[in-house]
From TrEMBL:
Domain of life: Bacteria
One Gene Ontology CC term in the entry: ATP-binding cassette (ABC) transporter complex
InterPro entries noted in UniProt: Peptide/Ni-bd, SBP_5, SBP_5_dom
Tagged with keyword Membrane: no
Protein name according to UniProt: ABC transporter substrate-binding protein
Length: 514
């Protein structure tokens, strides 16, 4: 998902939705995955891994910034850490925290921190750093995406108990507290440090940074966990999926999750390259701003959802990888009892006529920074012509696209978030987070109930009702759920996917044949 923090993100998360981010393998690797890469056998310690990303030419250092593209997420996953890493199986894998407890009514939560953790400059990590980060995120002046994940908190209710304990006193019960604070973008830098210093606790530390071109990380030998086997990781930025794919084939990089899917048949026959496919965690979407004409009329939004041929999109835009989707975010669980939406041009034409927009003309802007994204909007445009609708596809450079992120009326992005994260942005009253400006009283009322309970089954039943509302009157065209595909050199071993995004973020187990 792309994101400008202000961000599409979560309570607008980066879609990057909000952006922005990267994509690769997910925790349960599909049949096309190489077991060699998954188990980490082979290779030797040392060496440099070259990772290709599609990223903006506008790029800055720091754990938090207002403009983000894929390079931001990849380098920060190496330099900084969250309280815990989510897992596909459910329980968190603790990182900077070792446990989270709460009182009976979910209004007071206590986070225990890991002892003996050092920052890259050798200073100790502790409760002061955690309190400082959460208060920074909650400060509206900073306009950071992550505020939307945790805006149920009162900054005055966050207190240090001791060097390794932080207590959160909430204004009202909040059941999914642990889910919220373990978001992978809530990461911890040294209190009082400058963003350009990038002082974190991660397994790699900053060596060099050339904005929009390359980031070089080096192994942090003082890391609290298993030490990386690599000496260095180079994150190399490309302007397009095509150029990243060509760099892989030309052996200019060792791995990338930004792969042109139409090139997969060639790649799979290319000696020395391997393909890894995740579960169907990626949704490349088309989004409508619901407070602006013509999309302030639900009939126009419904018409757009009926114009797209989902089967054709799956086969032509996404090379047959994945399954059709039904215009709501999240994974394939807690689904509403509604039929799979299919193309219906006569009904779309009638809806537009009823809305007084029979010969609609509208611009659709896209940075085409995900595989299949450009082909998807082109398919929508071609089918729209059949009923007298003109959709002008405007392909943009990623940096220019992100500069006005959140201001567009008809646009593309991508999403790899669990549903409870995606809901955050949709119910936000802050326009800098809720980029679609879609508000539905019934949906928002259900969301309050969703976040008030910690009962998983109750959450699931509420989600079904919310997804049905999105299906009926939402502002998104989410036509397919796809696997994230990454390609890597057969000399690389031990690549590890990040859940839930499926992105290539973790390199501590990686080795390279020398």
């Amino acid at each position: 998902m792309l994101s400008r923090s202000d961000g599409k993100g979560h309570r607008r998360r980066p879609r990057i939705l909000a952006a922005m981010v990267a994509a690769v393998m997910a925790a349960g690797l599909a049949a096309g995955c190489s077991s060699e890469s998954a188990d980490g056998d082979g290779g030797s310690s040392g060496g440099t891994l070259r990772v290709g990303v599609v990223a903006s030419t506008i790029s800055t250092l720091g754990a938090y910034t207002n403009l983000r593209s894929q390079d931001f997420y990849v380098r920060n996953a190496g330099m900084f850490e969250p309280l815990a890493h989510r897992t596909k199986e459910g329980p968190s894998r603790w990182a900077l925290a070792t446990g989270i407890t709460h009182n009976e009514d979910n209004t007071e939560w206590t986070v225990k921190l890991r002892p003996n953790v050092k920052f890259h400059d050798g200073s100790p990590f502790g409760a002061d750093d955690v309190v400082a980060v959460f208060k920074r995120l909650l400060d509206k002046k900073n306009g950071l995406i992550e505020r939307n994940f945790i805006d149920f908190m009162d900054p005055d209710g966050i207190e240090k108990v001791d060097d390794l304990t932080v207590k959160f006193k909430l204004p009202k019960p909040y059941g999914p507290f642990e889910f919220a604070v373990t978001n992978r973008t809530i990461i911890f830098d040294k209190m009082g440090s400058k963003p350009e210093q990038a002082i974190g606790t991660g397994p790699f530390k900053l060596a060099k940074f050339a904005p929009g071109r390359e980031t070089e990380l080096q192994r942090f030998d003082g890391y609290w966990g298993p030490k990386p086997k690599l000496d260095r990781v180079k994150i190399i930025s490309f302007k397009s999926v095509e150029s990243a794919t060509n760099a892989l084939i030309g052996r200019q990089i060792d791995a990338s999750s930004n792969v042109l899917q139409t090139s997969l048949p060639t790649i799979e026959k290319t000696p020395g390259l391997k393909v890894m496919k995740s579960d169907d965690v990626l949704k490349v979407g088309i989004y409508m701003r619901a407070d602006k004409s013509p999309f302030d009329d639900v009939r126009v939004r419904q018409a757009m959802q009926l114009i797209i041929d989902r089967k054709l999109a799956l086969s032509n835009a996404f090379d047959g990888l994945g399954v059709p989707a039904n215009d709501h975010p999240g994974f394939g669980t807690c689904l509403p009892d509604v039929p799979q939406r299919v193309q219906n041009l006569p009904q779309a034409k009638k809806l537009l006529a009823d809305a007084g927009k029979p010969n609609l003309t509208v611009d659709l802007e896209t940075p085409a920074n995900k595989p299949g994204m450009l082909q998807l909007v082109q398919l929508l445009s071609e089918d729209a012509k059949k009923i007298g609708v003109t959709i002008n596809v405007k392909k943009m450079e990623l940096g220019a696209y992100l500069e006005k992120w959140g201001e567009r009326t008809f646009y593309t992005s991508y999403d790899t978030r669990p549903y409870m994260e995606a809901v955050d942005e949709q119910i936000s009253a802050d326009a800098s987070f809720n980029h679609q400006h879609w508000h539905d009283p019934e949906f928002e009322s259900l969301a309050k109930k969703l976040y008030a309970t910690a009962d998983a089954q109750e959450q699931c039943e509420i989600q079904k009702k919310m997804k049905k509302i999105e299906y009926e009157r939402g502002a998104s065209i989410l036509s397919a759920s796809n696997p994230v595909v990454s390609v890597y050199s057969s000399k690389v071993h031990g690549l590890e996917p990040e859940f839930p995004s499926g992105n290539l973020y973790h390199f501590t187990k990686v080795t390279i044949d020398q």
